[in-house]
Amino acid sequence: MSLESVRAFFAEHAPDVEVLVTEASSATVALAAAAHGVEPGQIAKTLSLRVGDRTILVVTRGDARLDNRKIKAVFGGKASMLGPEEVQALTGHPVGGVCPFGLANPLPIYCDISLRAFDEVVPAAGSTHAAVRIAPMRIAELTKADWVDVCQPPAVD
């Protein structure tokens, strides 16, 4: 059902975006990067967070880590990750397939500025075997996301 809700979202809002289904799992950033032939940073991971009594989704680059001080400054409190059952119930997507598209419930969506380092990113598409290739600015446009700075700068090798 989750993959179908994402397909329906794109059919309605962006029919030019193709949902890619692979044999290889993309449940983790490393698996997704290997499955789609991109660097880990290009995987757009969607984090389901609770800040106070609010539940939000934050889309970040795959190799980014949240910065607790920035989260508190932007959202006014400490963030905690939701458990897998709650993620599934609120988003309609399983952990590893969570994305800001085709949600079961309307949730505030935020895109971290770390995504802007890439012309194209690969977020999940409602399944651990599905994804899309899309520009970060298009994610924000389609989901009406606000841009925030809540991640630590990526480590430089």
Task: Describe the 3D structure.
With 157 residues, the chain is α/β, with parallel strands linked by helices. It is 28% helix and 21% strand. It is built from five helices and eight strands; from the N terminus they run H-E-H-E-E-H-E-H-E-E-E-H-E. Strands 2, 3, 4, 5, 6 and 8 form a six-stranded mixed sheet that branches. A two-stranded antiparallel ribbon has the order 1-7. The termini are far apart.
Gist of the model:
The chain is an alpha/beta fold. Helices cover about 30% and strands about 20% of the residues.
Question: Key features?
Answer:
two-stranded antiparallel ribbon, 157 residues, alpha/beta
Radius of gyration: 14 Å
Low-confidence stretches: none
Q: Kindly, what is the distance between the CA atoms of the first and last residues, rounded to a whole number of angstroms?
A: 40 Å
Number of strands: 8
Please outline the major beta sheet.
Answer: 6 strands, mixed
Shape summary: globular
Please write the string of helix (H) and strand (E) elements. HEHEEHEHEEEHE
- Class from secondary-structure proportions: alpha/beta
Work out the strand percent: 15-25%
Determine the mean pLDDT. 94
Give the proportion of residues in helices. Answer: 25-40%
